[in-house]
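Before the break, one more example. Copy the sequence into your notebook; we will annotate it together after we see the structure.
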Amino acid sequence: MRISKKVAEIWLKLFKKIEIYATILDNNVKYNYRKAVTQYMNRFELVVPCHFGLEAVVKREIYDLGYEITRVEDGRVSFEGDAEAICRANIFLRGAERVLLQVGRFKAATFDELFENVKALPWENYIPKDGRFWVKKASSIKSKLFSPSDIQSIVKKAMVERMKRSYHIDWFPEDGAQYPVRVFLYKDEVMVTLDTSGDSLHKRGYRLATSKAPLTETLAASLIMLTPWHADRILVDPFCGSGTFPIEAAPGMNREFTAESWTNIIPRKLWYEAVQEAEDMIDKDVQVDIQGYDIDPDVVAAARENAKRAGVEHMIHFQQRAVADLHHPKKYGFIISNPPYGERLEEKSALPALYSQIGEAYKRLDAWSMYLITSYEEKPKEPKGNLAVPPFYCYRACDVKRIQEALDNGCGYDAPGSFAAWLSKQ
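Here is what the structure looks like once it is written out:
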């Protein structure tokens, strides 16, 4: 049940009276009660940016973690949580770009309004005397204040003035933990946040070797989550490139976050507990069958190196293989892939033959499902007759927003009978 800050304050006052007047109360009860009230007092508004069109994926992830959604905007999902939620969100959310702690929201149409509102925020509750703080990024859309550099300068000055008054000092060494600030303006509404993640969460740390036109890790993870695939089912990516789809299907946890050093807000043990929770959730009894193919041997070697850095090389089989040679003896597998579509790697003239090979290979597989993301649209009129290829899901890369709609309606973006039928006749 969600409890407001005002109610929590009343509970805390009552609890202090209990401590004073009811000393016979069991110590364990008192400790647990205080802990529960403190948790409700120290709650934050957390903001999770994500790819446009994938808000539903991130929203579902947050719900699965047990938190209440407070706001959904284009490319952004907000929820309420405590210090533990910051740790768990950074570690568990696979579709998120980063996790931001909202310090304040307000309207500002002039630099004076921006300065005064930022100065009014309780920065001393977040940043210690020795904290290093700077405005890492400012963005403005449809707002009267539009210069990012001016916004960054004004916000920094306002923060300094507030902290001077709070800490009674005129100079800050800024040699402690880092507290990067991000400011967003949209239609004159300002959101001021602290970045708990540091590097974007799509930078998992494993992809030092890349192929051309790689898919971001968070987008790949989101697309996998939009399919019914589970770890006990076969997964094949016949155009694996740098290995993003196979690696995201078997994600590791080799990450560091900026907020790990925020010991004034988040006790270190909460990070350890979140990592332990993630490790405990790994089902070591499941025998995974994840495979990545590519026709280029150098690309396959790069994918292997990336999987090794991610700590999942033992879970994935990479092999040099053309899509025309794709086959598997088992049933009920999944193809999840981002094939060439004329804007990268392949000349458009070669695409009809390539997509025909995809259709022929898929036709040979027994009771498999296929999920492709592509913007390739050069297809002739609908052929007549029955499909020679089982129906599959094909999503256009330029229109990711409709992926969730398609799945909710039980069909793919280019529904079975159109693109699938064309592939079968090429």
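The chain has 13 helices and 13 strands. The radius of gyration is 26 Å. Try to locate both features in your own notes.
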